[in-house]
Amino acid sequence: MTDVKAPPAPRWHRVTSGLRGRKDDGAKPPGGSSPAWRAVKLVILLAFVLLFLIPVYVLVVTSFKPLSEADPSSAWSLPGSWSVSGWSAAWDTLRPGLENSVKIAVSGSLISAVLGSMNGYVLSKWRFPGADVVFTLFLFGMFIPYQAVMIPLAGLLTDMELVGTIRGLVLAHVVYGIPICTLIFRNYYVTIPDELIEAARVDGAGMLRTYWSVVLPVSAPAFAVTLIWQFTSMWNDFLFAVFLGAPDSWPVTVMLNNTAGSGAVAVQYNQQMASALLASLPTLLVYLLLGRFFMRGLMAGALKG
To answer: Quick check: pTM over 0.85?
Structure first.
């Protein structure tokens, strides 16, 4: 009598049986870490946080000291008597510059975002002959340093009678910010399915109608990135403001620089520290309130598709 061999077990059955029979060797899953290692990492992170906050601590405590206590020898000590005289003097000095910075940064970032959105839309979804060449030229504009265009830009603004004005500074920042804004929007719009654009064309929508009804409603992440980027860049600008501005149009960065070393008898450290904090508060608030939108917008174009 011939022995009948049993049919081989299915492949999936052999694999699962082997997995069931394998003993647990105590290996930790990938990414796992012991409590001791987590504690070490936490201590290291806290040390870096404290190191980063040391200058902030000196700024804050010195800004609330009266002039008699504001001295480098007592920079680490808390105020003996808390005073807001430094903040009051800083506000009186920087108020015109803060108003100019708000006008420049808010209007300039909005204009840059709108122009960058339109450019990115045309270069990504409404292509034309030579679109890649035009986009390459836009990218080339990102690598031109401020110093290389300062003299011709000053001549252009002089001919346009805009030198020394807020409008001239806004124009300079918008023109210089168009390349990076175009890059951000173009990379984001590439991730939008072409089927949406084709469907809008089939329904009879033209270029502007498609942009307004289809592309613009989904552009919030890219607008968040561009607005935060441009606002911070324009608020912190110093070179354009000094070279192309005038005392009536100077932003807060120039006026903050002018307060350094002020005082014929003694350096007013309390006013200088308060001025530095006052000038940095807007950008700090922007990052605290909108920082998560900034990172989400940066990653949106990389994760889609």
So the answer is: no
